[in-house]
Amino acid sequence: MNINATLFAQALVFFAFIIFTAKFIWPHMLRAIEARQKQIADGLAAGEQGRKSLEVSGKQTEQTIQEARVRAAEIVGQAEKRGAQVIEEAKTVAKAEGEREKTAAKADIQQAASRAREQLREQVAALAVAGAEKILRREVDAKAHAELLDGIKKQL
Prior knowledge:
Blueprint: H1 3-137, H2 142-155
């Protein structure tokens, strides 16, 4: 074998290998590379979209928290107002109840005082009648009358 023929045969085989590779293997490899590039690009785009979505959701979360704080402050304010209103209503009702009880107590006291006066009048009248009866049974004597009146005064 001659080196030239061997070199020429090797070059011919290598050229055939290149054509075979370019015709049958290279398109499959390019499609696989392009698919992989597309997959990587899609993954990067999805990652970027996810990062943006995370930022948006973080802002929305902050806004929601702020709105919740404002609403909570409003609810607390309303509760404090309602509490003060309930206290004022209770004070008003208590004052009205106290006035009613005070009026009822005054009426009871006046009735009791009227009954006591009536009983006292009855007792005074009975004592006056008893005193007059005793005076009339005895003789007309100033000293005896004074003693009887002193006795009546002591009974009163």
